Amino acid sequence: MAADRRSKADTLALRQRLISSSCRLFFPEDPVKIVRAQGQYMYDEQGAEYIDCINNVAHVGHCHPVVVRAAHEQNQVLNTNSRYLHDNIVDYAQRLSETLPEPLCVFYFLNSGSEANDLALRLARHYTGHQDVVVLDHAYHGHLSSLIDISPYKFRNLDGQKEWVHVAPLPDTYRGPYREDHPNPAVAYANEVKRVVSSAQEKGRKIAAFFAESLPSVGGQIIPPAGYFSQVAEHIHKAGGVFVADEIQVGFGRVGKHFWAFQLQGKDFVPDIVTMGKSIGNGHPVACVATTQPVARAFEATGVEYFNTFGGSPVSCAVGLAVLNVLEKEQLQAHATSVGSFLMELLRQQKIKHPIVGDVSLPRRHRGVGLFIGVDLIKDEATRTPATEEAAYLVSRLKENYVLLSTDGPGRNILKFKPPMCFSLDNARQVVAKLDAILTDMEEKVRSCQTLRFQL
Ligand SMILES: Cc1ncc(COP(=O)(O)O)c(C=O)c1O
């Protein structure tokens, strides 16, 4: 296949002419042209191999042969909408239901994470008869108009906050108001949600839902303190709303210990709605909403059909089933635990060596779980000022060293690791060795008063 049929410069020129600059490139100053990928590796037009540390969509590995074959074989037989009886959709819903707590037993299939969250919003509003939403600060829940409205990460740069949206602080025990030395940050942060709800109610507003990523990712690879979600759910339910867990970035075994990241919050916690995307189809556009019977029944009572042309097609469901089969057969959930723990240990050693590494793990909490890991880069231990420019410099140097990483968090200073789940112990060693060498070189340069070529 002639994926590299024109020079990189020509591709860039054509892209700049034809594709909106709102659709951004990684490394805009020197974009990478990727022509193929396999497992945890991506290859450019010159054949150079990059270790992919960020692609949580290629969940079981880029172009996994089992997933590719499943799509191809089903494509040869039938691909149509879900208005016909077909075994794939029911087999798939059954398999997903086996991974979830019993009450989450009704499924809708869609094409993207945004579609899933938009449907979750509709479900919540129909079920509760309320309109308003509580979200966490810095959250991102998708690109549809409805979701930009509930994504502080986006709406802060656009029209601002709508009157039906209420923002609660991120339960960030490294940078937030309640930190690692607080006796009960879960309760303290949940009380913030209670306060936000009460203040909305005082203005006559009624809460339909609380939306949160089970582990806020754009917010900076945050791991909410255990027990926080149950407490929040109590406050939200009391206000007549439902709890929506966005698992679009973090579900499907990424956290290792559990299949779903919300399960880190304790076995008694069950969201009312769970949304899935990205990793669910390993790159094929698949998404899903799981909810309870009462929520689904309220939506059905409107008498309006939910129709989605491509959602739940035999091909999408074959792909989804193949992803679950690979996860199971290759034991990738257990693999995420062992490789993730090893990587975190290596990163912890970097924290001891390099003062710029602020938070990987502190005695009472961790900045990572399974293959979802954040490294918070700071200018200074006392103030924890985000080392934004340094983080951008590091990412660009890592790219020169064939490692693809990026940053997250409001200060864009959190290095995020969320690689394909086949990321290996050897990959962890290689990446941290490169990180170490670049940090050492940076420190050398700062000591000898050389200017670093920072990019923002
Ligand atoms: C947490 C979260 N929710 C929803 C979405 C939207 O998913 P999609 O881009 O598939 O529409 C994203 C995408 O980045 C996301 O990170």
Brief descriptors of the model:
456 residues, alpha/beta, Aspartate Aminotransferase, domain 1, Aspartate Aminotransferase, domain 2, 38% helix, 16% strand, globular, binds pyridoxal-5'-phosphate
Task: Walk me through what this model shows.
This protein has 456 residues and is of the alpha/beta class. It has two domains: 2-63 and 331-447, Alpha-Beta Complex (Aspartate Aminotransferase, domain 1); 65-329, 3-Layer(aba) Sandwich (Aspartate Aminotransferase, domain 2), CATH 3.40.640. 38% of the residues lie in helices and 16% in strands. The protein has 13 helices and 18 strands. It has helices spanning 8-18, 65-77, 87-99, 113-128, 145-148, 152-155, 185-202, 228-238, 293-300, 314-329, 332-353, 388-400, 425-447, and strands at residues 34-38, 41-44, 49-52, 106-110, 132-136, 165-168, 207-213, 242-246, 273-276, 287-291, 357-359, 361-362, 365-366, 368-369, 372-377, 403-404, 406-408, 414-417. The strands form four sheets. The protein has a seven-stranded mixed sheet, sandwiched between helices. A hairpin with a 5-residue loop joins β17 and β18 (414-417). The model has no long low-confidence stretch (mean pLDDT 94).
